[in-house]
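Sharing a chain and its predicted structure for anyone who wants a worked example. Both blocks are below, sequence first, tokens second.
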Amino acid sequence: MNPTPRVFIYENSFEGLLCAFAAADREELEQCGFAVQGEGRTWLWPPTPVPVQVETAVEFLERLRRAGGRQAVLHMMYGFLAEVQKAEQPLYTFALQTLRVGKSVLGMRTNTAVRQVADWKLKVGKEAHRMTGLLRFMELQDGTLYARFEPDHNVLLLVTSHFQRRFPLDNWVIHDQRRGLAIAWDGKNLHPVVGVPGNVDDLLSRREISFQRLWQEYVQALAVPERHNPRLQRRFMPSRYWKHLVEQIF
């Protein structure tokens, strides 16, 4: 007789996911289900809710680090930030294999779970790197620099670490409009931002408005109509990113 299938319900956070993995690992389960709390799904068997315990999450992550090194931890984190549907089982399998083998399994590319996790790590890292060059900061009336974007993956924290080093003395806000998340830097610390105004364009400084107009005129004057090549533009920069560019390439 097949055992009753187990489903672990976790809070939608990296710590919550790690706690769910730790709970499944304690029961030595290789195949089980994972779902985010509040999804409203119906289960044939009662699911097991897993509370968030930071100590448990840290312990599981440390075990993973000792077994697979720093890259194993990064792959796990980037896999979570990829926000791919049903990513829990491949991530759990990747973690279990790393813990069982006792060393990095990233070279096992014939393994489906390892290959998927490595692919997510590559995509998230690539988008985070791309955004460090595509973000456009705008000066607000109070001197704060504001940038907005809508990335495919949840790369907000990865991007902010770059701008902490690039603009350490400025006050700035980076806003992920797709997820409704924003982080502010005050020159010393990062802070989550709740309730970013919807009329940010009305809060631009006069200097910002002036520079935007100058930049648009410069781009227009520089462009050669006969060499207009939208396909080539999309190769260097996907069109989904264009809407937040000052020059508004169409």
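Comments welcome. Residues 112-134 form the longest helix (23 residues).
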